[in-house]
Design a protein that fits this description.
CATH superfamily of one domain in chain A: Cobalamin-binding domain
Largest interface: A-B, 25 and 25 residues
CATH architecture of the largest domain in chain B: 2-Layer Sandwich
Shape of chain B: globular
Largest sheet of chain B: 9 strands, mixed
Strand content of chain A: 5-15%
CATH topology of the largest domain in chain B: Alpha-Beta Plaits
Order of helices and strands of chain B: EHEEHEHEHEEEEHEE
Oligomer: heterodimer
Structural class of chain B: alpha+beta
Structural class of chain A: alpha/beta
Helix content of chain A: 25-40%
Number of helices of chain B: 5
Helix content of chain B: 10-25%
Distance between the termini of chain B: 19 Å
Strand content of chain B: 35-45%
Number of helices of chain A: 21
Distance between the termini of chain A: 48 Å
């Protein structure tokens, strides 16, 4: 990337290497008039974007196509944004330095609702009109995908089309159709019409929403019969043979997850009722030990990382986790390559294995009991017992660990104050386990950290009908915990309830929320997920100025008959199943792991493959 | 085990990489090249690698140095070749030698050579600048006020930086730019930044220079060996 205008400002901003590209393994192609230009926009700062596995996969996959050049763009940090505006420098692709407005496609990955204002800011910095209705033939097509695209409606006025499901399945198809049409009589409209027929593609302009007087959705229909009534997600059927890049771009500056990442399986069979990923990534698909070994070997070789992490929703659920880990350790121990296993479950906690892998580098332990009482853990179908936690921590302390982090949620359905106080009790029990070890055998200085986040009900979960706790209720519960946890060995952290409230509004939002996003953007909202930039008042002013009540979206209990804005998307899991799970939840009735037998979610009727 | 000293250049986009990031960058480069570095013992083993001095962000250099301890036996030529295969144009190894002596590169560095570009606010001709520079270099004392923070108290110390300036040669005055070659004290035994020298020219030699315009390129680093000033390799 070479641009004198940009070079001039780089030394005036924090971490300039965020904005220069040229990293090891970045792909810079020669551009000619036949090149299809795609830019992957990540609506957060560079270090966060570079830690996202899916972006690495898609960037490399798209670049495998000869006449397609895929570049990257991240949200510039506040200081850089100010400089760019001051010097009229548009947002640019890191590989060429060319403004985003020159590209054919500008793609965004939707990982988190509170990054939506960054999308708007990035479009504005690129001089691309914010609404699809304002964009013309010369403007790029704005496309979005990722987990939050399962409710695309809040961005329906902004994004030209959505990819629902797994990108490596669909992205090449939309490029092929584009290439073909560019040779003939291409118009933006004709292209969108054509791809609206592709399974997994949602083009909002071809769908119309009508509302009831109470604000709920009355109907949601395609504007003509040529468009499908439902959009079914796309999945990679055989993950073992699916594309996986042999190299990742290696950032110069430290990223959030600064290591090689290998995905060992997709999906999860546990069925925790609060978890959206547990639904949208069904069915479960595994890679073989051999494939994982090969992927990680080439990745480590080509990146030079000294750490590899095994990515999945629940790593210890991998069928042959012990075989995999022992093979990796055999290969990596002498090379001083560390292995990290994020997302381990307490009831399958292989402490001996962890001890073995942490001989290279020792870190603290993190557990997610999610709820403080057994009753509430049963309600959410977490399926772990207090004894699992106590045993795991006891074993860990005996083996020399002394730092434990515990993650909980507050505001879960049926939660009482007693359940909330259970969080404190659990943290104290963990502490007692440490001090039950004879003084001379204890190692290190105990530190137990209990963190609570505020529960956000999400679409496609059994709790999609559930009212979120109000901000006041969250704050009351948090304060109650904060006041009662008074121990130098036990720390308590809580999340911002106001941020979770907005997250809940957008997560179950409809098209009207899109206008709020634009309004909040106009008022200067961006980097909302970063506490130093989150401005709740500006958001509230935005709702007020448009006459939209956020509580309608976050705090309202819905009934089973209500039509949801996301109901036209088919994840494979039926609404009936979600209703059944919601009812079982009220009775604190468990649903077993579907590896142990089909629980009838419906995904096996739509998709083949997986354990179903 | 082998102790090696490497000389490298840093330019282009790599000038935006901080010192800490550079260390991580090289650790990865060694791994990609398949060359195992020796590691420290303990819970968090770190590769044994040390750099001569940190280069300020935004500064290019043709003469940076690092010492490494290798676990494998490899010739200097092969090491240079393998590393460069895994590096780019903007950062390249230019010299490799087996290290003599035990002292760390960090404590050895005494002097640095810099090419400094600065834009004057008024028009100058070469002779004028040379005259002002000569008068500046005749001074026996050039005072720099160094601030020191200690327990929230800021104390100012006056330091004579003149002994830290070995030479300043005027190279060109053209196209609205003045180019100088400076030889300054550099490293952990004393360090004078070229930017400070430019500021002192403004202060002591009555030169009208744009301090924001200063661009520095490090030419090389030097050690003192048997009373002579030589490069570390």
């Amino acid at each position: 990337m070479k641009n004198e205008n940009i070079e001039r400002i780089l030394l005036e901003v924090e971490k300039p290497s965020r904005y220069v590209g040229g990293e090891i393994n970045s792909i810079k192609k020669d551009i000619n008039e036949n090149t299809i230009r795609f830019v992957m926009g990540f609506p957060d700062v560079y270090e966060v974007g570079m830690s996202h596995l899916g972006s690495h996969i898609l960037y490399n996959l798209i670049n495998t196509v000869e006449d397609v050049a895929c570049e990257r763009a991240y949200a510039p940090w506040i200081d850089m944004e100010a400089k760019m505006r001051e010097h009229s420098i548009p947002l640019y692709g890191l590989e060429s330095g060319d403004p985003l407005s020159k590209f054919d496609f500008v793609g965004f990955t939707l990982q988190y609702e509170m990054s939506y204002t960054n999308i708007l800011n990035m479009l504005e910095l690129s001089n691309i009109p914010l609404r699809w209705s304002e964009r013309g033939e010369g403007d790029p097509l704005v496309v979005a995908g990722g987990p939050c695209a399962y409710n695309p409606e809040p961005l329906a006025n902004i994004v030209d089309f959505f990819v629902i499901g797994e990108g490596e399945e669909v992205n090449l198809e939309i490029l092929d159709i584009y290439r073909e049409m560019k040779k003939g009589e291409y118009t933006r409209e004709a292209y969108l019409k054509r791809i609206a027929q592709v399974e997994g593609i949602y083009v909002p302009k071809f769908y119309e929403a009508e509302y009831n007087e109470d604000g709920t959705l009355k109907s949601f229909e395609p504007i003509s019969e040529e468009f499908p009534k439902t959009v079914t997600k796309r999945i990679v059927e055989d993950l073992d043979s699916a594309y996986f890049p042999d190299r990742f771009v290696v950032p110069y500056i430290e990223s959030v997850h600064d290591r090689a990442m290998v995905e060992i399986f997709r999906g999860c069979t546990r069925g925790c009722r609060f978890c959206q990923a547990g639904t949208i990534y069904r069915p479960i698909r595994e890679r073989s030990v051999e494939t994982i070994m090969n992927h990680s070997r080439t990745l480590l070789q080509n990146t030079g990382y000294d750490e590899v992490s095994l990515a999945s929703l629940s790593t210890s659920d991998y069928s042959d986790i012990e075989g995999l880990v022992s093979r990796m350790m055999d290969e990596y121990k002498d090379k001083k390559i560390a292995l990290s296993l994020p997302s381990l479950r307490l009831d399958k906690f292989p402490i001996e294995m962890i001890e073995e892998i942490q001989k290279v580098r020792k870190t603290g332990l993190t557990f997610a009991p999610e709820a403080g009482s057994q009753r509430l853990r049963d309600v959410i179908n977490k399926g772990i017992q207090e004894s699992d936690l106590i045993e795991s921590t006891r074993n860990a302390f005996r083996r020399g660990w002394s730092t434990v982090k515990l993650y909980f949620m507050i505001g879960l359905p049926t939660e009482t104050d007693e359940d909330v106080m259970g969080i404190k009790e659990l943290a104290y029990k963990v502490k007692d386990e440490f001090f039950a070890i004879p003084r001379e055998e204890r190692k290190g200085n105990l530190k137990v950290t209990a963190s609570t986040s505020c529960f956000v009900p999400k679409p496609f979960t059994p709790y999609q009908w559930f009212p979120q706790d109000t901000v006041e209720e969250f704050d009351r519960k948090t304060l109650m915990l904060r006041k009662s946890i008074r121990d130098s060995k036990v720390n308590y952290n809580s999340h911002d309830s106001k941020l979770s409230f907005l997250e809940a509004v957008i997560a179950r939002g409809d098209r009207k929320i899109g206008e709020v996003l634009i309004e909040a953007h106009k008022r200067g909202c961006r980097f909302d997920g970063w506490s130093e930039h989150f401005n709740y008042e500006k958001w509230m002013e935005s709702f007020e100025s448009l006459g939209i009540d956020p509580h309608f979206y976050a705090n309202r209990e819905r009934d089973y008959e209500e039509l949801f804005p996301w109901d036209f998307i088919n994840t494979g899991v039926t609404k009936e199943y979600l209703i059944k799970e919601n009812e079982k939840s009220k009775m604190a009735e468990l649903t077993k792991d579907c590896r142990l037998g089909c629980t009838g979610c419906g995904v096996n009727n739509t998709f083949t493959g997986g354990v179903c | 085990m082998k102790n090696m000293r490497l000389k490298f250049i840093k330019r282009g986009n790599m000038i935006y990489i901080s010192h800490l990031d550079l260390m991580r960058f090289f650790q990865r480069t060694f791994r990609r090249a398949g060359i195992m570095l020796r590691h420290t013992e303990g819970f968090n083993p770190q590769p044994k690698m040390s750099f001569a001095t940190a280069l300020a962000l935004g500064t290019s250099s043709d003469g940076e140095y690092m010492d490494v301890e290798l676990d494998s036996d490899i010739s200097s030529e092969a090491l240079l070749e393998k590393l460069n295969e895994n590096l780019s144009e903007d950062i390249k190894i230019v010299k490799v030698a087996e290290r003599e002596g035990k002292e760390s590169i960090m404590s050895l560095i005494e002097w640095g050579q810099y090419v400094v570009k600065v834009v004057p606010n008024s028009e100058y001709i070469l002779e004028e600048v040379q005259k002002k520079l000569d008068s500046f270099l005749k001074l026996e004392e050039v005072i720099e006020h160094k601030e020191k923070k200690k327990k929230n108290k800021v104390t100012t110390r006056e330091v004579n930086i003149r002994p830290n300036i070995k030479r300043v040669d005027l190279m060109t005055v053209e196209n609205g730019e003045i180019m100088m070659n400076m030889f300054l004290k550099t490293g952990s035994n004393g360090n004078l930044k070229p930017e400070v020298v430019v500021a002192k020219l403004v202060e002591y030699a009555d030169m009208d220079l744009d301090l924001e315009s200063v661009k520095v390129h490090r030419v090389d680093l030097f050690v003192e060996r048997d009373g002579k000033i030589v490069t570390p390799i």
